[in-house]
Each structure stands twice: as C-alpha cells, then as structure tokens.
Design a protein that fits this description.
The complex is a heterodimer.
Chain A: H1 3-17, H2 19-55, E1 59-63, H3 69-82, E2 85-91, H4 93-104, E3 122-127, H5 134-145, E4 150-154, H6 157-199, H7 201-209, H8 214-250, H9 256-260, H10 267-292
Antiparallel strand pairs in A: 1-3, 1-4, 2-3
Helix pairs in contact in A: 1-8, 2-6, 2-8, 6-8, 6-10, 8-10
Chain B: E1 2-11, E2 15-25, E3 30-34, H1 41-48, E4 56-61, E5 64-65, H2 71-79, E6 81-84, H3 96-105, H4 111-124, H5 140-153, E7 158-162, H6 170-185, E8 189-194, H7 197-200, E9 206-211, E10 214-220
Parallel strand pairs in B: 3-8, 3-9, 6-7, 7-8
Antiparallel strand pairs in B: 1-2, 1-4, 4-5, 9-10
Classes of the chains: A alpha+beta, B alpha/beta.
Chain lengths: 295, 224
C-alpha cells in the first residue's frame, strides 16, 4: 500500500462519516460558483456586445451650412488636432438626401415633394478603436460641438450612456459575487474540515500514537477541500450551462439575445473557474488544518 | 533498547509521579514493571513512547533521545513501538479488524498482508468470530485483547503493555502471554506493566518494582 492509496482511502472514510456536513458544503460551494459564474457570464457577454456596438460607433456632426473645400480642410485639421481618428467623411445635403431615400426604400416616394437640400450637411467621424470609452467619446463630442458652424453632434448618447452604466453595474455585481464566492467557499470548507477534525480527535490522537506521519494525517483533509472545490465548481458550472441552454432555446429568434450573441464561457475560463474554486476550497481546508490539527 | 537516566515526572508543583528513575532494558529482553496502583508504572510507559515528556532526565529509545525527535522522525520511531494502553484507545465505531489494521496502515503495509496478519492475530487470541464486530460492542476482556493485537500487529521492535491481563481469566491470560512470548522470541523487546503475580513470578525475566514513583527493587524472576 502506498501513501496515496492510504490517504485517498482515509479521505473516503472521512467523507462517508461526515457526509451530511460535507453535502451541505458541497451545495454551498456549487451555489457560490453558480451565482458568481452567472453574473460573470452576463458581464463577459455585455463586454462582447459593447465591443460589437462600438464597431459601428460614429459621431455625426450636423453643420449649419455646407462647407466649401477650404472649410472642409480646416475642419478636418481641427478634428485631427484633437485626436487621431479612423475616418472623417463629409456628407453634402444632396448625399444626405440620397442616403435617406435609400434607407426609406419602397417608401422613398414620400420625399418626392421635398427639396433635395432639406437635410443638413454633416461630417461622419469614426473614432479610433482604442478611443471608444464612454468618457472619451463624450469629450470628443463636446469638442466637435464647439467647432465653428456646428449645429449638433449625435452618436446615440442615451443608448451609450445606459449601456455604459449597466456595464458598470454588472462589473460591481461580478466583483461582489466573486467576493461572496471567495468568502463562502473558503469559510464553509474551513468550517466543515474543522467539524471533521473536532469529531475525530480520538482517531487523530491514535494515529499519532501508532506512528502516522504528519502528511498521512493532514493530506486526507486537504483532499477533501480539493474535492469540494472541484465537485462544487463542476456542478455549479453545469447548472449554469443548463440554464444557459434553456434561455437560448426559449428566447431564440429576433430579440435582444440575438443582438448580444449570447455565448457561454470559453474552455480557458471554465478551467480557470474550476481551478479558482479548487484553490479557494484548498485554502479553507489548509487554514483549518493549520489552526485545529496540532501535530 | 531503553535507557533512562535520572528521569523525573511531576504534575503541577506538588505531585511527583516519578523521581530519580535510572535503568536500561536490553534489546530482545522481556521486562516486567510491577507495583501497586499509582506507583508510576503507566507514567513510565507513557514517557517511553513519548506520549508524555519528562520534567527532567534523559530517555533514549533505540538510540534516540525520544524527547528531541519531532515530525516524521518521531512518527517512524513510533511505528516501531507497539503500545497496548490501559484504557485500550480503541475506536468504538470501527470493527475489530479495522482497529488492528490501523497500526499497519500507517506504515503502508499491503492490504493483503494486513488482512492476513489481522486474521492470524485474531486466531491466536481466539477472536476470529469478532472480525467484523464493532469494537464498542465487545466485552472489556475482548477489547483488551484487540488492543494487544494492535500493539503487536506491525511487528514492532519494542512492545509496551499496560496491565495486559487485568480483565482476563486464566486461560485467556495464558494465550495473551503466549502471544507476547512469541513476539519476544521473534526479537521484540517487551515491557509489561502489571500487578498480576501469575505472569511474572514463574519466569527468568527481570522485574522492576516501583513504589511511590521510585525504583524499589530490580530483581530477576525465579525460573520454574
């Protein structure tokens, strides 16, 4: 019989003897992982959706008058002076009319009585991809609004603002649920191992007297922590995956979920969550061993 | 095997369990510790296996200063010392076989060898039918024999036995002594603390009598 066989058998014995408290801990760890992973999944999908939305982000600067060639150059210089941009496109009143007619499609005949210059001229500014945070866009739009001849700047302020605040809220929830996961997993496992140690003082004393090494006595408790972390995270993530599939099948079709392209975690994230859970539960187990298992 | 020099053990400030104890036990010897209850026999055994530490003095077991050993070194030495405690120290919710196996599991003996050794010991102590009985359900005499079986199971080099026949009838006492004699002949050093005259009077082994925590006499038994 080797060391690992002996300690795994001992760990199995511990689990059998204290199965009720072990089961409660396992449920708590599963639930903590589920709560954290749920919000983290929403967070990652929000970030993904934000990236996709920012691909289409452009600021439209409506002008009072159609600028001449010289004015266009001057405006272009002023915009670039503020910051580098990906693209600047001047749209004349006539071009704006054509675009609008194109967007109306079959309904474009409503424009027949309208003059072709009734829409204002504008500048379409596409900012650089790395300069698309909410605050940067806000600053940039304020600058553009201050340019001479500018009537109004539009970039879907309300939508971006709401999206930005919602993402911040989700970030806070992820951080809170992450902290909850750390606290509950660590404390519950520590508490369960402590109960096991307290309930088995006679056996632990006997093991010491018959010559069990410290690692022979301690390792089974550490294995319990690792198993709690592993099983708890597997069940938590499986429950989340089930929920994810249910949402996908019940809310499929043209809707907000399609816009967001709701995705599950990548294998790397799944492995990271499992490893994180194992580490936290092992830490809980280790602290109890250090504190209550005096050898 | 055991060397004690000027060993003293006190509890608190005014209770002296042992004082000025100096003696040695040779390897392969069977050694009897006798004396009335409270004479210090159990304390002496506890000091020998490092269950307690002396207030003063030196205790060497198998060449090691047992009170300086720590961690794995102490564990490995303890694997070579089998102890049958007066209060048995059995796990009441485990079977007889599991209780005996513990001593061998900690030194990673193969499961088949453990099974074989457990059956053999239970046969010798006439406990074969109790193999799967929960220890808490056994009589005192049976528990005593299980404790003894666990002490000798790992073929230790030193066996310490505290009152091995206290709860046994004459025939079972004979079986217990046969088992200890067999271990002794196989090379184990054996120290038996007892006040049962029948097991130490009729042999040639050394007998040390303790009185009020000191050595009263160190004699050799009368050969039959």
């Amino acid at each position: 019989m080797n060391f690992w066989f002996a300690v795994f058998r001992q760990a199995g014995r511990n689990l059998r003897q204290t199965w009720a408290s072990q089961f409660m801990t396992f449920l708590t760890v599963s639930l903590s992982v589920l709560i954290f992973a749920f919000f983290y999944l929403i967070y990652t999908n929000m970030i993904g959706a934000g990236d996709r939305l920012s691909d289409d982000l452009r600021l439209i600067v409506y002008l009072e008058d159609e600028p001449g060639k010289e004015m266009q150059e001057q405006l272009r210089r002023k915009i670039v002076n503020f910051d580098d941009v990906e693209k600047i496109q001047f749209i004349s009143k006539e071009e704006a009319y054509k675009r609008f007619a194109g967007q109306l499609g079959d309904e474009s005949d409503v424009l027949t009585d309208m003059p072709k210059n009734f829409l204002p001229a504008s500048i379409e500014v596409v900012p650089l991809k790395n300069l698309r945070s909410y605050n940067q866009i806000k600053l940039f739009s304020e600058y553009l609004a201050s340019l001479p001849g500018t009537e109004k700047v539009q970039y879907g302020q309300e939508w971006i603002e709401k999206f930005y605040y919602f993402t911040r809220l989700i970030t806070i929830v992820v951080l809170l649920s992450g902290t909850l996961l750390i606290l509950t997993a660590t404390f519950m496992v520590a508490y369960t191992i402590r109960l096991t140690i307290m309930g088995r003082q006679a056996e632990l004393e006997l093991l010491r007297l018959v010559g069990a090494t410290n690692s022979y006595i301690r390792t089974p408790f550490l294995i319990e922590g690792i198993l709690q972390g592993f099983m708890g995270s597997i069940i938590g993530l499986s429950a989340l995956y089930g929920l994810f599939q249910w949402i996908r099948s019940h809310f499929a079709g043209p809707g907000i979920l399609n816009l967001f392209q709701f995705n599950f975690f990548s294998p790397i994230v799944i492995v990271s969550i499992i490893l994180g859970s194992i580490c936290l539960c092992s830490l809980g187990s280790y602290t109890s061993i250090r504190k209550f298992l005096k050898l | 095997m055991i060397e004690m020099i000027k060993v003293r053990r006190t509890y608190g400030t005014d209770i002296t369990a042992l004082s000025d104890i100096s003696f040695s036990v040779e390897t392969g010897e069977m050694f009897f510790l006798i004396g009335r209850s409270g004479a210090g026999k159990t304390t002496l055994l506890k000091l020998t296996c490092n269950m307690e530490t002396p207030s003063n003095g030196l205790i060497e077991v198998a060449g090691y200063d047992i009170n300086k050993l720590k961690g794995n070194d102490l564990a490995h030495l303890r694997q070579r010392i089998g102890v049958a405690y007066q209060d048995f120290k059995l796990l009441d919710d485990r079977t007889v076989a599991e209780n005996i196996a513990i001593a061998m599991e900690v030194s990673y003996k193969k499961p088949r060898a453990i099974k074989h050794q457990v059956r053999d010991l239970l046969d010798q102590l006439q406990l074969s039918d109790k193999h799967n009985t929960i220890t808490g359900e056994l009589s005192r005499g049976e528990q005593q024999r299980v404790a003894l079986a666990r002490a000798v199971a790992n073929s230790p080099r030193l066996i310490l036995v505290d009152e091995p026949t206290g709860n046994l009838d004459a025939s079972t006492t004979e079986q217990v002594m046969k088992l200890l004699t067999r271990s002794n002949k196989a090379g184990a050093t054996i120290v038996i603390a007892t006040h049962d005259k029948s097991i130490y009077e009729q042999n040639k082994h050394r007998i040390m009598e303790l009185r009020d925590g000191t050595i009263f006499s160190l004699t050799r038994g009368e050969q039959p």
